[in-house]
Design brief:
Keywords: Coiled coil. With 71 residues, the chain is an all-alpha fold. The chain has a domain of 48 residues. It has two helices and no strands.
Length: 71
């Protein structure tokens, strides 16, 4: 895989982890059950997406398609 693939998937992972952190913080500040339910669902989705992205990275490493070299 080329370096751009690495950059794209790492950027997606970073932003998804950031969204997860924001949702967890917002859940603490939620002032009613509907907001807490919404953030709980979003947290679950973000966690799933983090797992998907990390799984894809791990798979590509096993397949020797992941470039771990730095610029």
């Amino acid at each position: 895989m080329n370096r751009k693939f690495n950059e794209n998937i790492l950027k997606a992972l970073d932003k998804t982890e950031e969204a997860l952190k924001i949702c967890k913080e917002a859940m603490e500040d939620a002032n009613d059950e509907t907001c807490r339910a919404m953030y709980a669902a979003m947290i679950k989705d973000c966690e799933k997406h983090v797992q998907m992205l990390q799984g894809e990275i791990d798979l590509h490493k096993v397949q020797k398609k992941w470039d771990d070299t730095k610029k």
